[in-house]
Every structure is written in C-alpha cells, then in structure tokens.
Amino acid sequence: MLREPMGKREESQFIDIILDSIADGVFTVDKEWKITSFNRAAERITGITRHQAIGQHCFDVFHANICQTACALRRTMETGKEIIDLPINIVNQRGETIPVSISTAILRDQKGHIVGGVETFRDLSAIEKLRKELSKQYSFEDIISKNYQIQKLFAILPDIAESDSTILLQGPSGSGKELFARAIHNLSPRKNKPYVIVSCGALPDTLLESELFGYVKGAFTDARSDKPGRFTLADKGTIFLDEVGDLSSSMQVKLLRVLQEKEYQPLGATATIKVDVRIIAATNKDLTELKEKGLFREDLYYRLNVIKIELPPLSQRREDIPLLIEHFIRVFNLEMGKKISGVSDDVLRLLMRYDFPGNIRELQNIIEHAFVLCKGSIIELEHLPREVIEKQEHLMRESPVPYQGLQEAEAQIIRETLKRNNGHRGKTAQALGIAKSTLWRKMKRYKIEQI
Amino acid sequence: MTKVAIPLFGSRVSPRFDCAPDILIVTVEGGKVVDKNKFTPLRLAPAVQLINQLIQREVQVVICGAIDCFSSRFLTQSGVRVIPWVTGEADEALKLFTEGKLEPGIILSPGGRKRWRYWGARGPGRRF
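Above: the input entities. Below: the structure tokens describing the complete assembly.
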C-alpha cells in the first residue's frame, strides 16, 4: 500500500515525535542563532519549556560556559566540521551547574544550502557523580592511586599508623614518601601532636646534630641561648627523617642511641633528655645495599626497618597517571584560578609513555608548567616543557611506535613482513605461517597495497 | 548613588554570569546614569574571583542572565542585590532598572516582554 505524502505540518509533527523519543537533548537553530526546535530531553535537562525556548537565542536558553567565548555550533557552522562529545557545563533553570557533553552538526536544505545547526547534548551528572565516587575509592588521605600495590598499602596503612612502630619508607625521589609519612601521622593516635620533618641529607653533620638534638647556652661560641632539638619539638608526636641513607656514620651512632634509649643529650648538656617520638624514616637509596657495603650501620638498619614500605616509581604505576593528572589539574585550577578541564589525547598519550625520572613530583611540575602556558581549557602538547617532548621524541625515534590495537598490530606485522620479503606474498605467507589466501584477505581488509 | 554591574556579551546582558567577556559597571544616581565603565575579568577564572572583584568595586546591584545558586547566594550574602535571568539588550535592562521596573526573569525582546520561569522566581512561576 502506498502512503500519501505528508503535508508540511504533519512532517514537522513527525520530526517532533522522533526528536522527543531521543534520550539526549536536541535543539536546532536557524542562521540567526534562534531556536527552531527543542526536544523533550532538552526541556528536562535545561528546565526550560519548548514553548519558552523556541524563538529565543540559543545562548539565552542553553547557558553553557562556552556560549560567549568558544561556541561549538558557531565553529561547526564556520568550518563545516562536526564536534563530537565536547565536555562543557550549563546552568539550568534551577541554578544548578550541569556537566554535559555536546555534539554539533550543520543543517542543510534540499539544495545543500546551510539553514542552521543542530546541537545534541547528554547529561553527564550521573557519570560525573560516579566518577567522583570512584576517585574517592582511589584516594586515601592525600594519596591517589589505583595501583594494586598501593591499594594494598591503603588497606594496611591504618593498622600501621595505629601501632607505634618505626617505619622505613623506601622509594625513589618524588614517589610520595613524605605524603605517606604525613598520612601515617594523621591516622595515628599522635595526630593532634607535632609532626616534624628533618631532611638529613640537606645539612652538614654539625648543623644536623644541633638541629636534631639542640644545644644548651654556651655549648659553642655562638650558642647564646638554649635551643631545643627537633626531637624535643616532636615530643609526643612524629618525626619524619627524610634521606636517612645520607647520614654520616657518626650521626648514625647518635640516631641509634635515640632509637634504643629513647633519650638524647643536647650539645654541651650534661643531662640527657627523654623523648617519646615516633620515627618515620625515608630514603631513596637501597639501605640493604648500603648496609652490605658497610656504609650503613647494621644495628641502625634493623632499628629503622621494623615496618618497611616500598613505594614504586611512577613508571611502574602508569595506571595512576590519568588520575594524578586530573588531581593536579583540580589543585592548580583552584590555586591559579583557572578553568582547565583536561589534557588533549596527544598529551595523555605522551605522558603515558614518558618514564618520569622525577616521578610524581615531575608530573606535578609538568602540569604546573602547562598551566602557566595554557590559555584555553585543554592542555595541548605545545604547553608541555620542551625537554619532556624532546626526550620523548628521541625515544620514539629509537623504538618503533607501539601498536594501537590488535588489528593495527596485525596490519603492521603484515606490512613489515611483506617489506622484508620484497613484497613476495608466498614468502610472506610462509613467514607468517598463514595461507596465501588468508594473507590476501587480510591485505584487502587492512587496505595494504602491494609493496 | 547605586553601583550596578552588568556582565556583558556584546551589547546584551551576558546569558551567563560567570562567563562574561566584559563587565559593565554603571553608577546610577537619582534615576540617571552618571558613570559607565567596563572591565575585563580574568579569563577562565572561577566565579568566586569575579564576585570578589565586584565586591571590591563596591557593586550593590548585579543584573545578569543565568546564575548558579552558589554565586547568587554568595552575592546576596555579601549584601549585593541580584536581578537574575534577565535576557536582552543591556541598555534596555539598565533603562528599566533606572525606572525601577526591572524584574528578575524578564525577557526583553522586540516582540514584547516575557518572563523566564526560573528557580528563584516568586509566585506562580516558581515551579516549572
């Protein structure tokens, strides 16, 4: 049975029914940016009725953060390029800021002339909420990680903190030793007492000794008054001894005494001072190795190494890189008053492959550097420090590009084998252990021309 | 003397308070505009920064388009009167304000005035 052709009115009703059945918000505009249609989901997400929206400027209805400065629909109308899933936010009629992702396209008439544009948008509130829940799951105190090893640490950290045992944190610089030490202190019964940090590697012996143990008036020429040591300042609390692997042998003896006797003697004093301090020591060196080489006292090693926590370098917990990038972006947005929403795919790809000799601190510095240079909302490759890009380019030249997926990998292997066999299909098929017909089929599928 | 801030989008009231490229600051005295100047807020800065800038400039009234609840509450609690969800040309909105006729939620269009139904509206328009 042939259907009667639809009239204009019927056709528009028919289109409205289709649009209303879509779960995403959809609106169309004419060339003057006035709304010509507004579907039911758009009403629900923006809180504005179709009746109110139609005839108004899209920016007066949509209230997106990019309307005034970087309108996506305008870009599409000007360049002809569609925009897909751009994350933005809108303010709805309830005054709530709603995260949405938008896609845009051009509307043309039958003759191909541009008559307006269409924008579809998806409410991301639920996804955003889930993402927040997930990020809660991946953070502990101020530490962020979904790495299996660190997640295991998260589970035992409260118990470790509860005990009063000495802890040895071992890991490369920038791997978060200080953050762990602070988390342990914050979770411990000593959390309301002092938390004192001493960087043992930064000071020469004599200075370090007076820093750690203090001195009494007249102990040396410039000692005009008593100075309490860091151990006294940390009494009833926690002391974090960073770079403990750099201690000289004489300082190691003095530290050992504090650990054994829980007392020490300030410079020039005759009496000893009793202290109740929990010690968290950290080092980026391998203390076991130092001990074996005779550079670190065995007795001190065993005194410090009661509970040992080893922190992996960032290159061994790459799954945390996106989480950490997101975290630093959030922190710097607050600190610098910016609204950067993320990094481009190219930047993420580069950072995922970068080996981060400076670990998390280096990642933090890279993001901070990018924040200073980035004027838009997405961090691009040109915002990264030059040496990071250069280093990565150097590496890329040395090692072939990793395959993007199984199919890409297969295509690449076929191309390389064909090249090795001067394009001889029989030899190539033999080398790959497949039939000639299979090779031919795969070459066709991956659009590999005869080499 | 009243100091009024209108976030701008070209010559129109910016559709969104926190994303306006320019802010118009107008001093109104005895129903007349006695001073007008513009400033450009820091791009991509959070709304709090803009609010602080307005407070520092001793703004007493903000005429704006869409505004999130947080910013609206922040302004009101700081003693700034907010006339939100105003749509249309800034000059027209300002004229109505000087005449004491500018209402929140008003749509100033050449075809006549309508009203948005928005979250803070009083009366029948409160729910949508």
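Note for the figure: The first helix of chain A runs from residue 8 to 20.
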